Amino acid sequence: MKNTLKTSFNLLMIVLILLSCETKDNIEALKTCEENIPKCEKWILIQDTTPSRAGFGFKSGYVNEKGDTVIPLDRYLCYSDIFEYYAIVFDIENNKLIGINKTQKKLFEAVFTTEMEPMPETDGRLLIVSSDKYGYANHKGEIVIQPKYTCAESFQKGKARVSNQCRPSKDEHYTWESDHWIYIDKCGNEVSINNK
Description:
By secondary structure, this protein is mostly beta strands. The chain is built from 2 helices and 16 strands. The longest helix has 19 residues, at about 1-20. The protein starts with a helix and ends in a 5-residue tail after the last strand. About 20% of the residues are buried.
């Protein structure tokens, strides 16, 4: 009886240890989407008090660290105060909120908040949209979770709530409602809400 209890206890401990440990695959997956990000030159937002061609906001652009204009006033309505890897801008010609790189290549379409400001990057992830589907970009503006969800929320504490079965809320604050939320980590893997 004593040996049976001891054996059962040991088996239980082994199972608990195995369930509580990160697997090698999970660790490798996190490494592939959370790499070290090298430093690059930061460009600074400049603004004029002249109204923008967009019909709202003021003329804006960017200067480099030497003070040279690198994106002229009124090409975009610029929202990012600092342009390091990407900047959030309103493309006046195409009437879209987008993320661009330093060659002004469109990286993704960004999301407005209910206050008509760009959704901020949180937890190293930025909510993006494409064809009414939501995904996420990283610190460098790279799409790390392809837009595939019909609704999604910003990351908090390494997780985001997403769903493909949702509807707009009926209150005055535009939010999503769903009976089928799932949680994902910063690499797009489904996780438990209790997974730290």
